[in-house]
Give the backbone structure.
Amino acid sequence: REGFRRSAVATQNLVVPSTNAFFVTPAGVTPPLCPANVAGVPAGTRCETVQYSFSGVYGPSSTTDIFSEVWQVTGGFDVSLSEKWNANAYLTYGRNQDHALSVGNAVDTANLAAALRSSDPATAFNPFGTAGGNSAATIAGIFNNLTDTDGKTRFLDAGVKLDGSLFAMPGGDVKLAVGGEYQDFWLRTGQIRGRAGAQTGTDTILSRTVKSAYAELLIPLFGEDNATAGFHRLSLNIAGRIDDYSDIGSTTNPKFGIAWQPVEDLKIHASYGESFRGPLLTNIFSAGGSNLFIQNYFDPTANNGAGATVQGVAVSGGNLNLKPETAKTWSLGLEYSPQSLPGAQFSLNYFDIKYENQIVSYLSNLNVLRLESLFSPVILRGAAAQAKIAQLVAETNVNGTLSRVINGGSLAQALAANVFVEGRTGNQGTTIARGIDFGVSVPFDLEKVGNFRVSLRGTRFFTYKIAFTAGGAITEQLNNIDYILKFRGRASLQYNRGPFDMNLYLNYSNGYNNTFSTLAPKIGANTTFDLTASYDFGEQLGFAKRFQLGLNVVNLFDKDPPFADIAPTNNGGGGFD
């Protein structure tokens, strides 16, 4: 795959000292003294701040050529060892390479600062829109950054499994499945970036092997041959899995299940299990390194408590100290299929899930200041924020070249920010979720009209509690914006007669809380309809063995979503969620 991308035009607040050859002061205004972080100007120099778009002098802030090549081969076999035992094995091997070269990419803050303070019209940058200035060489010096990102991966996956019947019991055969798996991951990723001819960057090789073994035992205590009152069928399921990661350790996860049919019409099942997910290699290491992003956050404490948008700095990147995510899950459910109404089914399932050490990043979350008490471990303010930002800039300042890229603004803006957000990947989250899934499906046949089926399926959550940061308070977020709704459901009416099929769906999501707004703290419920219809002509048309015509309409009545008081952000918004 090959691609080409043009990014958005760079926009920036420029602090322009009066030493600039094209400096303009509005009539009747005395410019303020330059901030202390404007380097290279004499004490007492005055500055103007200009909100500037580079569209007229450069266009897109970068152009990127993209290349990706992927291939994979898989093979395997199944062997019947006997009437009751089977074996299978497989091997998968794949490689891929990704490459992206961005030209422009970011404003060269050092060259821009020099051009802003230059008193020579040939080298000064003119941000005032007046005649003169902005030579091709000056512009090229400001947008002379290159970013070259390359990644190569290699993957090997092999596995074997043996399954069959151990011995017979009155309730049926006791069955066993055992197997093993071996995975090998290799990743080389890196990025060089910076001023053309003086680029710095990263080149990292990561690898991981995972050795796994598992076993599952099915024990039928009651079955067709020994069914009795209250025990039409009863079976136990016991399983376990061991995974050994070369870089993050090993884990053992059990699972237990029971399936009981007191009568033929009714099935009751319960299960408990533990699970484990190791961090991805790309969670551990970021190809682009650790960079700074100047972003706009809404701060409800600003403007004497009236709230205002403020500039803050977030840092991106991976985390070499990530731990695995874990979860514990149990469920209890039933299915009722009455013989008196063939084809009908009623189901109800209760679930309880707890995730711990969830791997998250708050780099793109622009609402952290709205819920500062919950996100406080990843937020710094004031002098502490400025000291942290200065530290991050200084620790990668090599030979006078800023190798930590600053996105969305200048070095001066970054150093002046009073808010810092830790946006690097971390084991931050805990989630506790409980609720029920339910389903009803009932067919009925009207001989002269056709066959109908009415169905309803949905999920009702009782709780959805979250701790956003490690060691942070666990708070209820059920039915709040950005989290799980209390109820979602989908009803359908299916109709069939001969070659004609039609399904009408009703989708419902309940109203919920907009915790980002005091003016409109509620978001209304949403109900939409979908429609599918098809007609099977079979061989009627003569030119095909089978011809079918179908129609699918999503949001049949073109209903708008309910209004949500959300400002436009990186994640959408602007009147709807």
User: Anything to note?
Assistant: The first strand starts at residue 2 and ends at 6. Helices lie at 109-117, 136-142, 281-284, 372-375, 382-394, 411-416.
